[in-house]
Model the fold of this input.
Amino acid sequence: MDAEETIISKEDLERLLDVDKLKYCNECGICTASCAIAELLEEDYNPRRLLEKIFLNPNNVLASDELWLCAWCYSCYRHCPQALKLPEIFLFMRKSATEHGLMQPLEKALKKIVENVPLPLVTTFVCFHPDRAGLEMEKISEKIERMREEYLKKEKRKRTVKTSGEKIAIIGSGPAGLTVAYESSRKGYGVTIFEALSEPGGMLGKCIPKYRLPKHVLTKEIEFIKNLGVEIRTSVKVGKDLDFKDLWKKGYKAIFVGTGVHKSQKLKIEGRDLKDVVHALDFLWKVNSDKKTEVGRNVVVIGGGNVAIDAAETAIRLGAEEVTILYRRSKEEMPANPWEIKEAEHEGVKIEFLVAPKKILEDNGNVYAVECVRMQLSELDETGRRKPIPIVGSEFIRETDMIILAIGEAPDLEFLPKEIELNENGTIWVNPITMETSLRGVFAGGDVVTGPATVIEAIRDGKRVAESVENYLKSLAG
Amino acid sequence: MSEKQESKPQNGGEEIRIGVYVCHCGLNIAGSVDCDEVAKFAATLPNVVLAKDNRYTCSDQGQEIMKSDIREQKLNRVVVASCSPRLHESTFRKACEEAGLNKYLFEMANIREHCSWVHLHDREAATEKAKDLVKMAVAKVALLQPAEEVEVPINRKTLVIGGGVAGIQASLDLADTGYKVYLVEKEPSIGGMMARIDKTFPTMDCSICILAPKMSDVLHHPNIELLTNSEVVEVKGYVGNFQAKVLKKPRYVTKDCSACNDCTEVCPIIAPNEFDVGLDIRHAIYTPFAQAVPSTYTIDMNLCLNKDNVIVCDKCIKACERQAINFEMKPENVELEIGTIIVAIGADVFDPSVLPNYGYGRHTNVITSLEFERLINAGGPSGGHLIRPSDMQVPKRVAFVQCVGSRTDRNGRLYCSNVCCMNTIKDSLLIKEHWPETEIYVFYVDIRAHGKGFEDLYKRARKEGVKFIRGLPAKILEDKKTHNLWLIGENTLQKELYKMNVDMAVLSIGLEPRRNSEIVQRLLTLSRTQDGFFMEAHPKLRPVDAATGGMFFAGCAEAPKDIKDSVTQASAAAARAGILMAKGKVTVEAITPISYPEKCKACGLCTKVCPYNAITLDKELQQIKIVEAACGGCGTCAAECPFGALTQSHFTDEQILAQIDAVTEYDSEKKIVAFCCNWCAYAGADFAGVNRMQYPPNVRIIRTMCSGRVAPKFVERAFARGASVVLVAGCHPGDCHYINANNHTKDRVERLWKKMEQSGLDKERLQLLWASAAEGERFASKIREIQTIIKRVTPEEIHKAKRVFEKALEGV
Amino acid sequence: MVQEVSHPFSSYLRSAMIPHIWCSGCGNGIVLNCFIHALEELQRDLDKLVVVSGIGCIGRTAGYANADSFHTTHGRAIAFATGVKLANPELEVVVISGDGDLFAIGGNHFIHAARRNIGVKVICANNFNYGMTGGQQGPTTPLEASTTTTPYGNIEHPFNLVHLAAAAGATYVARWTTLHVRRLTQSIKRMLQKEGFCFVEVISPCPEIFGRRNKMRTGLEMMEWFRRASSVENFSDPSKAEITSKRILVGEFVNVEKVSYERLLHEKIGQINEKKIVW
Amino acid sequence: MPERIRHAPLGNKKVKQPNAEVHIITDQCKGCGFCIKFCPKKVLEESQEINARGVHPPKILDESKCIICSFCTAVCPDFAIFVVEKPCKEERHIKHD
Done:
């Protein structure tokens, strides 16, 4: 487009830059280095460069497909020394582009996603979010399917896959596992996914609410992977039904562990075992598996991560009259993505900061209230966040009839052989470059390595693993 | 307004002849104020016999014009409308004196910081405001009285707080000049941060080798009294006449100690040595480092077993041949009489364990630059062998990460810490010197090599093969088995992601204000800038003076700086303190209270509010007595007196009321009458000007020394004259430059609020603001915020307030 | 299990007499311990040492120390010691006795020995009452303290022993509690190296007899009181060193040099024998 | 010095640490508890056993913590406890707690 033509006014831009402190950017590159998309699409996407372009001439950026490649994981914001909210700057630009009908760049971006990002359908829904710029998702998903067909046809023509015959076992069918399967099977390896649940998809199916990811989208994606020749064996729990030794014996040359985080952490307060106190993951799972789920009228969600937000929004959609999130630190420290918080607040979820539960009060086994205490923030701790300390004497009682606990999830790794080393927080330690665990031939990725994170980060891990597995198998072959 | 009003003879029949000078200040003022018009307007004001505008009133030429006008035109009052009186009042006062006019017959109108600079884009409004400011000054100056200043003798002794290189240099300079110096250091030894560093940049001198002789000079200088293990706990008095209390904590080892180390060898208690940042150990009886001054050992009572007066373990006592160990030592309170104070408390280093991505504290081989200094130092825990903590091996690949805790808005500091770039370059060369094969990577955002010889050193490092990579790592990951590290980031010049494998990573940590600077600030009633360092009186013209008279800054207390700058500043501070003391006396500004005994009812209220106990009540004579030398000049007594029996010289009720009347003469319903204390709020408004923070032009500032001077009747008068909003602004509670005088401000404003509420007035129309000298933005945004209040104040409201407060219109 | 290694002080004690008869929590054992410790550090020859004691619990010290010793009649320890010292000034004569023995019935002997500056070293274990005879009020019982003879609280002003000793002319005066074992040992050492009359007061717990009447049932509780109340100040004014429940001032009070009585006496005898002095 | 210490001391330093042997003459003890209470390193604790004199003598809780200050020896009224230093075979690496 014409560079002279001004679409974004100087005032708009200044407001944007000032609000988000763009003037403080030193171009240290930390945003790019922590961005999953910048790794998946290194040639095409670099948030730092994009930001710089906006700074220099925002109008030029509107015509760029780069604008549509941010996956909303907020990893850049979390790492940025100036706490710049890049995704929100990009959203502002996307909206401007949509308003002016500049859709050509989006087409280009989708093409790049289809060609380079595994699970393009799912990621477009839960990560790239063209809907937030006011676009219709159904049309876009049709477009993606068409593009993928074309692309595969073209690719088939280009190269003939040489089947090496080696087999890879994948434990867990979440986004990380599906990515490894997708990539490895395209490289010509035999892939089997072992899934403990009856449905494949991991967190995608289990916990991401349907209003974020419609079921048919996930089904399509999984069908597609199956069509690539991947075998998915559901209801098989490694550690119970078979173990690592069996896998080696069956001829699998490499194993990928992508079991995610499913163990809800326990809240150490009185009353946590009451029947109206549920864990967020269980709650979301129940809702997602179409079981009839009753919610209270006045629901309290405890926690501050994305899961807490999802649970709160789901509760509202199920008809709860009042949903309040209690978080023990302030908005600054909240691990949920700022945009998700904004959306939840928009949907009517109330968030109370600097409040921690002390005791759940019951009446005949029914929850009727939670005793809370107000917190204040003291100095920074090792997580870089300010530590909350209770304010003595600030206890108060908040009435509620249902409590959803979302205070963090941890992996359940009892099935692993002893040789695999873990980190202090219970996740699997891997070589950050090769994603190999301390046991040769065993790789890991996704939440089971990083702790609770986003879909795109799991996919990034999966892609890294697929490459490492290939290198590893080649080295085995000599 | 255009008609010349008739001059009325005042002040005992003397004819008032005012000269007004409107300064262009180049384009600084003239750029947004029509100075010519202001001068023309000034000429129409009562008693003004002459009004001129000129380019630079403060220039020699400008001053000469003023002087000859005073002589030839027989001016007996002068107004200069230019910059802040905090900058040039003394210049013009001196010019007046030289022309034979008493300097207290001069007044300034601040049309630069408070007008042209903050209303850059509204020439018309800025000009109107400038006129008002001149009118206020003219109204005040007509009522000014000549005054003589009291001279007070000065103590020719200096207290230097902090025994780092800055404190050492300042002490030596003053002591060599011939003044007595008390050097107070809270650690057992002087030396500070410089004693811990291995080499200094850019010359690569051995740090302790050049510092140790200075430390020893301090110890042996006949004019220096060294107080280590000591802390200043109280400072009273005023410039030239401070009284300080120093708490000298016991060492439990007497001066007989010969530093033979026999005691340390037998001491069974070990703990990490703070001097070596915990990389080495020390005993409960110890000396922090070999060259410590004084060399006398110290027993750390937090560690020693002999608590509560009971000697449990007597190993050191038995080992000490010279019987220098004395557990009966008690803390001592030392009282000092001093004339000047030099603050050289230095800086702290940033603690990077709050940055989870860098894994400091979790990954063994991630160390800070300070830890590196101790590792590479021959006197350090590894004897100068650069080893990595995990396996004691010499690392082959070392990464330096710059800007850790600096230039960040999150978990760190916004400013550049000034020394880290060069420090890293120096460190990289030190490695290259001993282990030339080592691969060194420096991850940076900008290399700031601005000083003399710095660029050469940078080039040398590049020549030696140190690799500089632009782009900071987003995270540092550790290999569990080898404890090697991966640095993951973007090379922002190549626009490529890197994954660098190294043996050790050094985090180049920034400098922070001392964690106890708040205490020091309160103790000495200083100001701090937003970054937390102490604020100088003027960044260009008085860079080492504190705003409080008789106090000076040296070294990192004022801002992060390297050794050379610290030493330079220390010598400057010593010179400034020396100048003050050489005069032998200080003049106390003639702003002390004036009493009218005939009105005094001997109620004693003034004695209660005086922060200096300078007013006493003689119950028998039913009279008050004012001790002028003890008076700090806040004027809170004058504000408190319900009978008008007290007023403050140079800030009399009449003068302030005249200013209020001048502001409210017309368009009062659109204006804000603001009372600002000289030290914080007025200076904060100046700061807003210097930084060109724009705010609406309808505020008129009346300067008082302290917000405690603002009597309720001033506020009432402003409302009675139809002012829309009144703002009272002072220092933050606890930061008052007159101990606690601003507590009374709060009480008075609260009383007024109550009265307004009871009378059905909108109490929001009286605003109270606490703003420090550094909080220009706070001041500016307050003025912006007040606009919404003004919008909702109806003419009826204004009228109602006029009625409620009409009593205040009576003459005084 | 480890009995083959013997206690380092066992050679200073008469093994047949040990264990001693003092109660659990009594401070007398600590006084003896510190005394022996000082002897050991000074490497003193036990054959040149005479321990003299009077009547009272602490009087048994004379029997426990493996040196030549006298267990004398009530109050007369200093009188016997004077005799020994004058007869053979080469001997180190140490009186270890109680507050009742030394300052009630023996008060006169004490002040005159101090006045004369006879080279006898006196260690007084002060337990504030007559412990052996059942806990009667004595010359050091603090005001308001409860004893068997003052069940409603003592109304007699007690002696301030360090003030008394200093006023009477002792060349070395110190006071410690049994908690201050290190400083006590050092004080005894210093005393043993001095020439004239020296006095060390040791505040000693008597939990069974004195403590239990004054809300301190065990030795530990009394030691805790010492820890709480004591403050160390060397060379402070002994006249201000009264003991109260709130404050026990400890430290060295006097350390001066003065020629001893026995030296002057023997010089005088020598001069007479050499006929330098004639009537 | 105001920095917070985050690194353990380097392991290259060896420090002579006392190697104590605490001897308790059990039957001589009268159970006053002074040694247990006043031990600065809390090496001792009261035992459950009853000795010949009918009291609970002290027993060793953690001999390695003993630094041989010998305060127990000095404060024992009954000459029932003493400490000797074992010949030190090797210098121990320092540990930072």
Observations:
- Chain D is about 10% helix and 20% strand.
- Residues 17-87 of chain D form a domain with the Alpha-Beta Plaits fold (CATH 3.30.70.20).
- The interface with chain C takes residues 21, 23-25, 28, 30-34, 37-38, 53, 55, 71, 73-80, 82, 84 of chain D (CB under 8 Å).
